[in-house]
Design brief:
Layout (H helix, E strand, L loop, with lengths): L1 H5 L3 H17 L3 H18 L2 H17 L3 H17 L3 H17 L3 H18 L2 H17 L3 H17 L3 H17 L3 H17 L3 H17 L3 H11 L1
Length: about 240
């Protein structure tokens, strides 16, 4: 980036700032990511680069979504989606629809979420994006789980898990296994649930996902509590805490 600045290449500077922002976002450094992305967007606006602008808006919307600022995230993502539509960027449209669907899911607006996610799946299918399809199917499975439609949820989650396995997405596989384990727990199939959740916890530990591992410990502790194994439950729950 320093070289681009020295030679007055604004486009190069903006691209570097955008990439740095995306790296910071991926590593959960959201405040620093936001600063870099806003700087990049300002430069893109100055040189009239619509594609750079919309990518930054999308990333800023994703950061707001991931920090639970759902109203602000929705505004950003809807702006980005319309900009992607104007330039026939179908991947961008699908990603915005997916994230808007996930916001609706997280805020318990399940019917509206389902509509968005199904639209996103259709576009992902048209452009051959297996990861996008799998993520949306998993979200639909989670919605079915949250609405106590456990059989249908299991079908969706197993379908998504197979797709994640096919593309070697360990996080996706682990998240599906976790949801499947929780369905078994909620339907009182404690032995099977324990097997799934212990396997999932190991996978989360292998990819250094502390939150996922803690959630599995909590679920395992709940199973032990429900089966009157209070000492063992206490150990799990205190470890999760």
């Amino acid at each position: 980036m320093q070289i681009f600045e020295d030679i007055g290449n604004s486009f190069g500077v903006a691209q570097c700032l955008q990439c740095l922002g995306d790296i910071l976002q991926i590593t959960n450094q959201y405040s620093a990511a936001t600063i870099n992305l806003k700087k990049a967007m300002k430069i893109f606006e100055g040189i009239g680069d619509s594609f750079g602008i919309v990518q930054c808006i999308q990333s800023l919307g994703d950061i707001l979504r991931m920090t639970n600022q759902y109203s602000k995230a929705t505004i950003k993502l809807e702006i980005a989606m319309h900009m992607f539509e104007d330039t026939d960027d179908f991947l961008g449209v699908a990603q915005c629809l997916q994230n808007l669907g996930d916001i609706l899911r997280m805020t318990n607006q399940y019917s509206a979420a389902t509509v968005k996610l199904k639209k996103a799946i259709k576009i992902f299918e048209d452009i051959g994006d297996s990861l996008g399809i799998a993520q949306c199917i998993r979200s639909l499975g989670d919605i079915l789980q949250m609405t106590n439609q456990y059989s249908e949820a299991t079908i969706k989650l197993e379908m998504a898990m197979q797709m994640f396995e096919d593309i070697d997405d360990s996080l996706g596989v682990a998240q599906c296994l976790q949801s499947l384990g929780n369905i078994l727990r909620m339907t009182y199939q404690y032995s099977k649930a324990t097997v799934k959740l212990e396997k999932t916890m190991q996978m989360f530990e292998n990819i250094d996902n502390s939150l996922g591992a803690a959630q599995c410990l909590q679920s395992l502790g709940n199973i032990l509590q429900m089966t009157s194994q209070y000492s063992a439950a206490t150990v799990k729950l205190e470890k999760a805490m």
